Amino acid sequence: MGFNIPILSVFLIIYIVFYVTRFVLRRRDKCCYMLHYECYKGKDERKLDTERCANIVMRNKNLGIDEYKFLLQTIVSSGIGEETYAPTNFIEGKEQCPDYHDALTEMDEIMFETLQGLLAKTGFNPSDIDILVVNVSLLSTVPSLTARIINRYKMREDIKVFNLTGMGCSASVIGIDLVQHLFKTHPNKLAVVVSTESMGSNWYCGKERSMMLSNCLFRSGGCSMLFTNNRAFKDRAIMKLTCMVRTHVGSIDEAHTCCIQVEDDEGYQGFRLTKFLTKAAAQAFTINLKVLLPKVLPLWELLRYVYVSTTQNYKSRLLRAKLEEVGKGLNLKTGIDHFCIHPGGRAVIEGVGKSLRLSEHDIEPARMALHRFGNTSAGGLWYVLGYMEAKKRLKKGNKILMISFGAGFKCNNCVWEVMKDMDEGNVWEDCIDNYPPKAKANPFIEKYGWLNDDSVNFLRLQDNK
Predict the structure, then answer these.
(1) Which of 104, 237, 456, 463 lies 20 to 30 Å (CA to CA) from residue 61?
(2) Is residue 186 annotated as part of the catalytic site, yes or no?
(3) Active site residue 361
(4) Which listed residue (205, 215, 338, 411) is catalytic?
(5) Cα–Cα dist 282/100, whole Å
């Protein structure tokens, strides 16, 4: 009995078409669209101007003159402006003795205000949400923070919830990575990610300099974001996730301990930032880019990337890594239009800028987010994105690289494609015309850049009065 070639050909074609169609449909279901995001903006009475910052520092009676000078001079050179926001208990003078109620009040205000704004702008109801992810590194409550949101908005019983703690400043990207993996097996879903940090309950009262830094840099802030894999909402999406790479170098002892919550020798709890932080960032960033770049750069730039990678000893470069030299010889602008750098501090922003050969225009959003809102931990990236949007930089088809670093030590980066011109009003709306600031003068330098022992004693006496 011979084979019927025409019939076999037909079956073969049907087989191929079936599996190609199945593959394409499965790929379509794995998309991750961002529908909107809403950043938190504090009340005017909680703004930290120069004088209020100094007063808060002076209230710590455990410090000596050298510690006061160190803190004030760190603020002077931090790149942070006078309009960042402090938790309510800081304004009320309770930063050294926060209670559980203070922590919950701070979280409720940030989470509920951003969620309310997000739902109002998108037109969805709380009952429409299928997945909820909340990340706050320094506060773990029982019931969880996700449970507080579910109770407040009376969400469905079958909602999938995830409460992430201890993930550091890059937790926002981790939350999005979790959502995109859930989307692969749960079609046509809506997911909310809430990213913030508990500042009010984590003031450091001791005098170890590496732990005093967090008092100078971190401020209140956060963001809620709405995602979907439902293609019916594609036309409403503002961005599409195209690439995600997560890197963890926690196996290196110095990297593991460069950002860590500990107690000092006197028993005061705080967040220690060591000198190894920039080196850990460089190591994680180097490994991350090695995976990320082949996914985002054009072929001709990839050839140069291969050349750079193979003509130098990778391991020896990793051991002596410097953040400013991570992307040496590469031009990411051939595949990326905008760079959303975590506004963790001037050193990180400038280091990433130098390593990727970015212009002042490229790193301006991160600088301005740090200046206006401070380091808001996991929520910081979205203030940077908001700045780009408010400046009308984000056009359809643009690619955005989000670069985040976090305790552990982690480097988590992702690439977004802009789905439509982004120019809606956001948290920057009432002040964007004032940025970048035209005056180069730093009010902290004007008041405290000249600090000496006599001036510190005078400030302490004034505060005691």
Answers:
(1) 104
(2) no
(3) no
(4) 338
(5) 37
User: Count of CB atoms within 10 A of residue 282's CB?
Assistant: 23
Quick check: is 117 in a domain?
yes
In this prediction the pTM is: 0.88
Split into its structural domains, the chain has a count of 2
Average pLDDT, the chain: 87
Q: Which of 215, 223, 229, 342 is catalytic?
A: 342
- Structural tokens at position 367: 């600088």
Please list the alpha-helical segments (H only) found in 203-276.
209-217, 253-256
Host domain of residue 93: 33-238
Domain boundary pick from 238, 268, 298: 238
The C-alpha atoms of residue 373 and residue 210 are separated, in whole angstroms, by 22
**Annotated catalytic residue 342:** yes
For the stretch 364-378, pLDDT in tens is 999 999 999 999 999
What is d(CA 300, CA 217) in angstroms, rounded to the nearest whole number? 41
Same domain, 231 and 253: no
pLDDT digits (tens, 9 = 90+) for 222-249: 999 999 999 999 999 999 999 999 999 9
Question: Are 173 and 379 in contact, with CB atoms under 8 Å apart?
Answer: no
**One domain for residues 58 and 39:** yes
Query: Is 338 one of the catalytic residues?
Result: yes
75 in the same domain as 53: yes
- Residue 173 has a pLDDT of 97
* Catalytic, out of 202, 216, 223, 371: 371
Residue 1: what pLDDT? 47
Instruction: Judge whether 6 lies within some domain.
Output: no
| 76 shares a domain with 214 | yes
Residue 17 belongs to some domain of the structure: no
Q: Which two tokens stand for residue 464?
A: 């005691």
**230 and 346 assigned to the same domain:** no
Output the domain CATH number for residue 223: 3.40.47.10
183 shares its domain with 171: yes
Question: Does residue 188 have an active-site annotation?
Answer: no
Is residue 388 pLDDT above 90, yes or no? yes
From 55, 186, 243, 248, active-site residue: 248
Domain assignment of residue 461, yes or no: no
Q: Which two tokens stand for residue 124?
A: 């969805």
Give the residue from 210, 238, 266 where a domain finishes.
Answer: 238
Of the pLDDT bands very low, low, confident and very high (cuts 50, 70, 90), residue 444 is low
The span from the CA of 372 to the CA of 434, in Å, is 11
Cβ distance 38 to 118 under 8 Å? Answer: yes
| 218 and 341 in a common domain | no
249-282, pLDDT tens digit by residue? 999 999 999 999 999 999 999 999 998 998 899 9
Q: 403 and 262 share a domain? A: yes
Single out the residue of 413, 378, 380, 406 nearest to residue 250, CA to CA: 406
371 catalytically annotated: yes
